[in-house]
Design the sequence.
């Protein structure tokens, strides 16, 4: 099998240029979808029959929570690819994912606790979703801590990749154990998205936000990836050509 | 089995931002010793660690008996012995225990073998002493005894004569010479020249 | 002397070969021998466990009814931290003196050798903690009938802790101040062990059937045995690059 296209695709100058070209194709649709979704969710959608306007935070909370997991998966897959095929660009992708994922996780935690205020009367409830989200934040922090603790980039890449893969094996176990723990102590969570009766006026903006956040992640990832490639290749000659006006 | 068991092809290695090995190619025959020289930081240790498969080179490959060592790294490791800067000994174990564990993980050995190897390395009286109480030179002798006990056809030695007196250096030369006489291959990274006892030396000079 | 021949005759080489299990057994014996030469370090995690459990009655209240309610959480938090405390030393000396390098180049399965190291860590910390836990539990007001359940849950759970910990310890090899980072890496991964372990202990203290959480702990331990040495071996190789 001919692998030259694969290596060309993975060569730093090519990745740098490609990421730059692709970014607007994700950034603009992301902006449109998020603006549209927010308009639909905050203005057009009817208030919830139980929670009134309080439910509207779902339009930020749910996509953030979804992204926090999805970014972790992306990071682990990229890390595994880097580990198995010794692809440096894959490691750069994984390294770029972590701060984005951690930001989405923080957003999910903050919006979740703001939502908890009207619903539970407290800012923090040991709800299994929020607890899992908090543990996920620690997984991200551990990943970033390990990366910054190791000075050699190559070693940081490979060691953090092992951690990401170990983490992704553990995420379902952690989630299961937390749900199990919670079920012993209180009734199932009130925060449910699978209610059958979500009307289209509520659902469509939510789906728009989900898609918008996903595209936003890709755009952010591409931008970070360019920075990461520049830092790693700072000694290479192609950079001077790429950056010269 | 060819007469040139070890072959290195077009080895490129980067350490951080330094291009340490640039297309290194050589073959080494049975019964020959390669002396790797070069100033500090020229990549002598990196070369040895790349050869034994600890470091993954950016490009190129290492062949043993015509086969890429990456295809079965464990089988290759079973044929080589690597001795780094520090002798891999525990201060809280006696010299004998150290060898029983270190060498014993790789091959069965009898007490008689062990005592004979220690005596040969000039550390006969050290067997029952804690390594922590030995001098740096004695430790190195214990490590050399372990090396001889491993009985493998490829030695990779990083500065094997450090901390040794004139007798000790001579001993390293003799051990290498014996090893070569059995048809083994030895690669030694050294600052100074290897002791004269070593026949069939080839040179490899690494630039800074 | 009989100079050890290089070109070992095939039948002799086969007679001298050491199996993976044999190598792992030697590695285990080695770690145990070393630990018993330094008995002082051996006692430290246990003393730490004892003093942490002592903190709670002093910080909360000496009422046994209240303490009994807290006992599972106290025991497991203390056990988790004590196990973590001993982890920092799991690979440190071996990395420093080149033992890990020799393991990686031994031609034996590094995974098996890593398993041996985790097994040694468990025998030296997990098992003693399991034997000490009932004493701590009794002092926190647990009934004598709960002893069997507490020993079983701590013994099984600490197997998983030793294995998970070995990954973190291998990843942070070579860092100067790795203690805090090691906790940050290891604790989130250890939470399921804490949850199931504390539940089993809680049920044992309440005199109820604790088999279900104990089985879940067992499942975690089995999963750890199969996967953790693999990850630790990969991490050790990376640290040697």
Sequence:
């Amino acid at each position: 099998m001919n692998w030259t296209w694969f290596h060309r695709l993975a060569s730093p100058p090519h990745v740098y240029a490609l990421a730059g070209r692709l970014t607007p194709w994700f950034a603009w649709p992301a902006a449109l979808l998020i603006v549209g979704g927010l308009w639909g969710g905050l203005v057009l959608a009817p208030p919830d029959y139980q929670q009134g306007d309080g439910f509207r935070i779902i339009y930020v909370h749910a996509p953030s929570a979804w992204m926090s997991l999805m970014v972790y998966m992306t990071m682990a897959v990229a890390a595994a690819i880097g580990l198995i095929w010794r692809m440096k660009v894959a490691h750069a992708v994984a390294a770029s994912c972590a701060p984005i994922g951690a930001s989405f996780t923080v957003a999910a935690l903050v919006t979740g606790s703001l939502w908890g205020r009207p619903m539970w009367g407290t800012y923090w409830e040991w709800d299994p979703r929020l607890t899992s989200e908090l543990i996920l934040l620690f997984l991200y922090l551990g990943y970033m801590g390990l990366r910054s603790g190791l000075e050699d980039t190559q070693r940081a890449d490979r060691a953090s990749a092992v951690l990401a893969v170990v983490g992704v094996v553990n995420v379902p176990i952690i989630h299961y154990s937390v749900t199990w723990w919670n079920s012993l102590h209180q009734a199932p969570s009130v925060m449910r998205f699978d209610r059958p009766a979500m009307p289209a006026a509520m659902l469509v903006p939510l789906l728009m936000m989900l898609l918008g956040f996903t595209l936003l992640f890709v755009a952010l990832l591409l931008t970070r990836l360019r920075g990461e490639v520049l830092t790693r290749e700072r000694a290479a000659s192609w950079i001077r050509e790429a950056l010269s006006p | 089995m060819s007469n040139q068991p070890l072959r290195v092809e077009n080895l490129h290695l980067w350490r951080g931002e330094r291009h340490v090995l640039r297309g290194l190619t050589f073959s080494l025959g049975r019964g020959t010793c390669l002396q790797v020289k070069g100033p500090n930081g020229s990549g002598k240790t990196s070369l040895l660690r790349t050869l034994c498969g600890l470091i993954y080179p950016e490009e190129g490959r290492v062949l043993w008996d015509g086969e890429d060592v990456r295809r079965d790294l464990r089988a290759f490791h079973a044929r080589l012995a690597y001795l780094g800067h520090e002798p891999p000994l525990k201060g809280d174990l006696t010299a004998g225990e150290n060898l029983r564990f270190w060498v014993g993980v790789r091959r069965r050995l009898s007490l008689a073998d062990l005592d004979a190897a220690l005596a040969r390395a000039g550390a006969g009286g050290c067997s029952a002493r804690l390594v922590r109480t030995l001098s740096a030179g004695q430790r190195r002798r214990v490590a050399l005894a372990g090396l001889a006990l491993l009985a493998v056809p490829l030695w990779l030695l990083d500065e094997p004569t450090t901390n040794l007196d004139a007798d000790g250096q001579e001993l390293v030369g003799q051990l290498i010479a014996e090893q070569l006489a059995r048809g083994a291959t030895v690669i030694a990274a050294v600052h100074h020249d290897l002791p004269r006892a070593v026949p069939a030396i080839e040179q490899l000079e690494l630039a800074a | 002397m009989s100079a050890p021949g290089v070109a070992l005759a095939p039948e002799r080489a086969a007679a001298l070969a050491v199996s993976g299990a044999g190598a792992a057994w030697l590695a285990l014996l080695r770690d145990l021998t070393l630990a018993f030469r330094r008995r002082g370090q051996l006692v430290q995690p246990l003393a730490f466990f004892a003093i942490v459990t002592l903190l709670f009655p002093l910080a909360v209240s000496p009422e046994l009814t209240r303490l009994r309610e807290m006992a599972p959480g106290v025991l497991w938090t203390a056990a988790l931290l004590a196990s973590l405390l001993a982890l920092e030393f799991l690979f440190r000396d071996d990395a420093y003196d080149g033992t890990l390098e020799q393991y990686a180049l031994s031609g034996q399965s590094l995974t098996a050798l890593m398993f041996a190291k985790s097994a040694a860590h468990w025998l030296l910390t997990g098992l003693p903690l399991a034997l000490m836990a009932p004493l701590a539990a009794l002092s926190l007001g647990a009934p004598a009938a709960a002893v069997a359940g507490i020993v079983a849950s701590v013994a099984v759970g600490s197997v998983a802790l030793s294995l998970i910990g070995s990954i973190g310890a291998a990843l942070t090899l070579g860092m100067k101040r790795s203690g805090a980072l090691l906790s940050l890496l290891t604790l989130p991964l250890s939470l399921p062990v804490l949850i199931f372990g504390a539940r089993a202990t809680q049920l044992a203290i309440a005199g109820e059937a604790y088999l279900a959480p104990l089985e879940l702990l067992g499942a975690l331990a089995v999963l750890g045995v199969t996967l953790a040495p693999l990850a630790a071996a990969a991490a050790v190789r990376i640290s040697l690059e």
